[in-house]
Write a structure and sequence with these properties.
The chain is an all-alpha fold and 642 residues long. It folds into three domains: 7-110, Winged helix-like DNA-binding domain superfamily/Winged helix DNA-binding domain (Arc Repressor Mutant, subunit A, Orthogonal Bundle), CATH 1.10.10; 275-491, Alpha Horseshoe (Serine Threonine Protein Phosphatase 5, Tetratricopeptide repeat); 508-641. The chain contains 30 helices and five strands. It has helices spanning 29-40, 48-56, 64-79, 109-119, 124-134, 149-175, 179-192, 197-209, 213-231, 237-247, 258-273, 279-293, 297-316, 320-328, 342-358, 365-378, 385-398, 401-413, 422-439, 442-458, 462-479, 483-494, 500-514, 520-523, 526-537, 552-562, 566-575, 585-599, 602-612, 632-641, and strands at 7-9, 15-17, 46-47, 92-95, 98-101. It has a three-stranded antiparallel sheet. A two-stranded antiparallel ribbon has the order 1-2. A hairpin with a 5-residue loop joins strand 1 and strand 2 (15-17). Helix 12 packs parallel to helix 14 (320-328) and helix 13 packs parallel to helix 15 (342-358).
Length: 642
């Protein structure tokens, strides 16, 4: 935060401080509510009509919109007391139909906290950063608005992110040999939050490393009892494995740094031996980035950024074959069909297509296949099916298992041309599992299990999907693939969809696991969408959960209908685009269908019916492995009956 800049605090009671650090008088509770609601919006515009609904729930008084404008005017005077009359506000601005808070990224403690926790490295610097960030909390987030529906999702997200930060702080202490320092905080942490399995794991490991093997085993027994009694679930594989390892006193539990020494010596030898300008460095870099990507979090984000830089460096050398190897070597399996960074993906696709045009025809077939598979993968959500088919044909012709696995990932990413293709994707997943198991391609074996989990969920074969979830978890634990748990935890929340309270709690825990995972294409808007699907499926009241992300157009008509604003809902429905061809295609069409039926919009009902009919025998949305709206057949029946 720059000197003299206004600061805002929501990690506790909502407050603001002037440039000298003195508290600003924010007037009454509704003034603070307006400010808090704008902070929740994270610099986006909040229409006056939505502010009215949020401040007065279902019973706004006459003149409520005027009252909101009065509150805003008072806040502007408090936040910018020196602003000359009739000059535009700089902080609380008017834009279109509403207002936005244009504070800097460092000016709001919750924004700063989210960014800091996500970026903190797992070292001494990261420990200091996390400790400082946790000190910014003054109480529960948005403390005086705990009961407000508009604050619920953000309060939940921040609370879960804080718990995640406490656990990352403990991990950093363990990595630095400070196990004894980690024990007190972790002990308090698991007492308050007994469902946090990773916290139990860290506490047991910290106790073991301080020579307290008996206490470590007692903690694991305590965890088992609490998980069974309070949640009705057995401990996950990581806790079970840790108990076994402690009983056998496995050497890796001691945190020895032999691997670190080997890494440091090898890296130093490479630096001494390979010239700084050698082209081999570029290819070696991509290999490192591929391994970095599967670690998730900041590793995945860094891998994406450095990958583009490596491609640009290769292109500058003017060697098409080298560029093809640099692009094609990044064969990181991909399961989610929405890009984390569309602009960056576009850069990669453009570079791959330029390189394809430069490769001599008839030679370098493996490199060509890898470039084509890259185009298919990075073009997720758009049609690149011809590139996927050509990559697969070359890979089968060359009988190269690794190349075929990469190509099949591209085929999977391009298998969403219409609804109802779960069986086809199940076949892709089955081939990936078998191929990868035969040839030791662990990450693609995991991908195959996740694809089958999704496909079998869509086909309502949950026993089969459960087996693939467990297989993916086992491989992830054995080979240190933390991102796998993100998908299996969401799948297990989906499995509770018949019980809305249990499912909602599980979804919120799963969403917390996404914080810092480095997958914004998956994370943004997913929790509100999952909760919307849960409520629609069970005919429960629809709530506005805050940031709908890319799913806002499909959620908005139902949110407006829940507020009895049929005219606005009908207009929003007319603006709804066709869903992207991806894992949520059927789910978004079902939401559109539900709004169309309620509004008796015959044209949209007919479009929804035609789009969903090929998936008549599937569960809507379950093919994502994350959420479901129940049988597609039920939605088709509603469309037919009206």
């Amino acid at each position: 935060m720059g000197s003299g800049e206004i600061a805002f605090g929501v990690l506790g009671p909502v407050t603001a401080w002037d440039g000298a650090g003195d508290a600003i008088n924010l007037k009454g509770p509704r003034h603070r509510a307006v400010l808090a609601r704008l902070i929740v919006a994270n610099r986006r515009v909040v229409p006056v009509s939505l502010l009215v609904d949020d401040l007065w729930a279902a019973d706004p008084p006459a003149g409520a919109a005027g009252a909101v404008r009065t509150f805003v005017a008072a806040l502007r005077r408090a936040l910018e007391p020196s602003r000359p009359p009739r000059t535009p506000a700089r902080l609380l601005v008017t834009e279109g139909p509403g207002y936005a808070l244009r504070a800097g990224p460092e000016a709001v403690d919750s924004w700063r906290f989210s960014r800091t926790v996500t970026a903190a490295p797992p070292d001494e610097e990261g420990l200091g950063v996390l400790t400082e960030a946790l000190g910014w909390w003054r109480g529960p987030a948005y403390a005086e608005f705990a009961d407000e529906p508009w604050a619920r999702a953000e309060r939940s997200r921040l609370a879960e992110l804080r718990l995640h930060a406490v656990e990352r702080q403990a991990e950093a202490r363990l990595a630095l040999g400070l196990a004894a320092e980690a024990v007190p905080d972790l002990d308090a942490h698991v007492t308050e939050h007994p469902w946090r399995e990773d916290a139990w794991r860290l506490l047991a490991l910290a106790l073991y490393r301080t020579g307290r093997q008996g206490d470590a085993l007692a903690v694991l027994r305590r965890a088992r009892t609490l998980l069974v009694e309070q949640l009705g679930v057995d401990p996950g594989p990581s806790l079970r494995r840790l108990e076994t390892d402690i009983l056998h006193q496995e050497r890796h539990l001691d945190g020895t740094d032999s691997a670190a020494r080997v890494w440091a010596r090898t890296a130093a030898a490479y630096d001494r031996t390979v010239a700084s300008g050698a082209r081999a460095r570029l290819e070696s870099t991509v290999g490192l980035l591929r391994n970095l990507a599967v670690t998730g979090g900041t590793g995945l984000e860094a891998a994406r950024a450095h990958r583009v830089a490596a491609i640009a460096a290769a292109e500058e050398l003017g060697d098409a074959e080298l560029t093809a190897r640099v692009i094609g070597a990044y064969d990181v399996p991909a399961i989610w069909t929405r890009s984390d960074d569309p602009a960056q993906a576009g850069q990669v696709v453009a570079a791959a297509e330029r390189t394809l045009a430069l490769l001599p025809p008839g030679v370098h077939e493996a490199a060509r296949a890898r470039l084509l598979a890259t185009v298919a993968l990075e073009s997720r959500g758009t049609d690149a099916s011809s590139a996927a088919r050509e990559a697969e044909e070359i890979a089968r012709r060359m009988d190269d298992p690794g190349l075929l696995a990469f190509a099949l990932n591209g085929v999977f990413m391009q298998s969403f041309s219409r609804a109802g293709l779960a069986s086809r994707r199940d076949g892709i997943g089955a081939e990936l599992v078998a191929l990868s198991a035969r040839h030791g391609l662990v990450t693609y074996e995991v991908l195959g299990h996740l694809i089958r989990l999704q496909a079998l969920g869509a086909l309502a074969d949950f026993p089969g999907a459960d087996e693939h979830a467990s297989a993916a978890d086992r491989l992830a634990e054995r080979h240190e693939l933390p991102l796998v748990g993100v998908f299996t935890s969401w799948y297990r929340a989906l499995r509770l969809a018949d019980s809305p309270p249990a499912a909602e709690a599980a979804y919120r825990v799963a969403a917390a696991g996404l914080a810092g995972a480095g997958m914004p294409g998956l994370e943004r808007g997913l929790l509100p969408l999952a909760l919307l699907c849960l409520r629609v499926r069970h005919s429960l009241p629809v709530l506005d959960e805050g940031d709908w992300g890319p799913y806002e157009p499909w959620a908005r008509p139902l949110v407006l209908l829940s507020r009895h604003r049929r005219g606005e809902a009908a207009e929003a429905l007319r603006r709804v685009p066709e869903p992207p061809r991806d894992l949520l295609f059927e789910a978004l069409w079902c939401l559109t269908a539900r709004a169309a039926v309620a509004l008796e919009d015959r044209a949209t009902m007919e479009r929804a019916y035609a789009a969903l009919l090929p998936a008549d025998g599937e569960l809507a949305g379950a093919g994502s492995g994350l959420l479901t709206l129940g049988p597609v057949a039920g939605h088709l029946a509603d469309l037919e009956l009206r």
